[in-house]
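sorry for the late reply, my laptop died twice this morning and i had to redo everyting from scratch. anyway the thing you sent over, i finally got around to it. pasting the sequence first so we're on the same page, its 116 residues, then the predicted structure underneath. double check i copied it right bc i was rushing
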Amino acid sequence: MKTQHIDKEFLNNATGGSAEMIMTLAEIFREQIPEFSEKMETCLSQKNYLELSRVAHTAKSSCAYLGITELRDKLERLEINTKTGANSEEFVSIVADFKRIANESMTELEEIITTL
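ok and here's the structure:
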């Protein structure tokens, strides 16, 4: 099965191929997606960029553990830019990308889990 967002080789190496570990990480991520999304939206609407940077940092780490490199890179850019105010016109689109890619990645994780 080919995935668009998840680096399956990275995920397998990071978990030692443990199906239990992959399922645990997937469950944690499933719970985090709505929480991260809501916090990011709130931070954007309140222009609380320092807190948005913190949320991006935490979400970035979750994506990194799962091998979702495209999203990890976008969140890293958001984390850095919200600290400096650089490229603020990108903040809304990166948050939208987070929601879309995170949900698509969750679907991929569910498909990966069925093959374990």
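The chain has one domain: 8-114.
thats about all i looked at so far, will dig more tmrw
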